[in-house]
Model the fold of this input.
Amino acid sequence: MEQELISKKDLLEQMDISYGQLYRWKRKRLIPEEWFIRKSTFTGQETFFPKPLIIARIGHILQFKDDLSLDELAGTLSPLQTDIRIGAEELRMRGLVSEQMILRHAGLALDSGQLPFDQAFYLYVAEHMSQLLRGEITEQETGALVRLLRGQLPKLEGKLCELVALRTESGSSMVLHTGGGRLYADERTTIAASIHLDEAIEAFKKKLYAY
Amino acid sequence: MKNSDMSSFGNLSVKGMGQAYGGQYRHVVIDGLARVSGNVQCETFRLNGMSRMNGSIDTDQMTINGVMNGKASIIAKRVNIDGKVNVRGSLVSDEIVLHGLLNLEGDCEAEQVIVRGGFGIAGLLNAGTIEVDLHGRCKAGEMGGSTIRVTRSRSSRASRLLSRIIPAFEPQLQAGVIEGDDVHLEATRASVVRGRRVYIGPGCEVDRVEYELELVVDHAAQVRETVKQQ
Done:
């Protein structure tokens, strides 16, 4: 699916900002490198941005820049870019999250067809896990997994984190595991699947922002 | 760890010729010739002579008098270079003062960059203020910032003679795209210059200028196309 792009010139005009500000925010890592899309046009090299993302981000920066220093602001823009909203339709079209998953587990996070970035990521992880388990995961277990991610991940930000699915005869359960060490299970339990969340977030961004 | 909290660490000092290992130090001083392997984190890094750095450098103050060849990126709050620095990575800083030559295979980022000499930056030179006094070849993939000022000062008799014999010594800046709020250029060859206020001075050759408020083109400059933005 084509994501709508905006040229740097149009962006500066629309948001009423200067080149100096844009380059400054780039230096402060407020605008991710992967949003700068270079394309050759008939007027020479031009830079484009994914329109909904960059406009949300710059709106966020402009709103807070008077109260926070740019470094503090960079801290508020976590890898789980909560200021960004993603259309549920887009998640579905890009094959990141199935319609069922959104209908059943997005819950209150879904607001006029859009999800905040972090919530969309949790659903993506749940979807990914259910694929790894080849669908051998019940509705309740998926729901518990989404609640686990929602409850724990924001607190664990910045730590290397692994999501592990354990299976026993009576069913599966999900464990979040930090520190990167191995897990050892007893004989009745098997480690059915695991996802490294830092890799998952990179994969998610890559698929989401791909053109 | 912050570089300013490194008072509990020892110093690394090389006098004459030597080899050293990377690690955490308070002050690193190299007088002479040294090869340093591994990454270095320190409060201050000072080189008088020549060194080859096989790892990255992370410091508050970096002072280079001489020649340094680096294989990895450098993060330094303040950088003073008198001499020549070649780095295969990027340079991230607050303030860079360069008297001499700087070659980077990556990007260069700082709030302020002051150059008297030449540079070759393969990626983006991104700084709040870029001031370049051209004394030799300068080349950057892209340049962006708030204020960009490139001047060619009156050259000395020796450098005039040299530039006549070897044309490569003719002071000139080459860049693909230059974007800034206030852009003042002399002796610059660029494909696209975009800015709010733009001055294209003598010796410039620019394919396309896009400006918003003001454009002045010197009669000794060549501009193929100008576009005023609303």
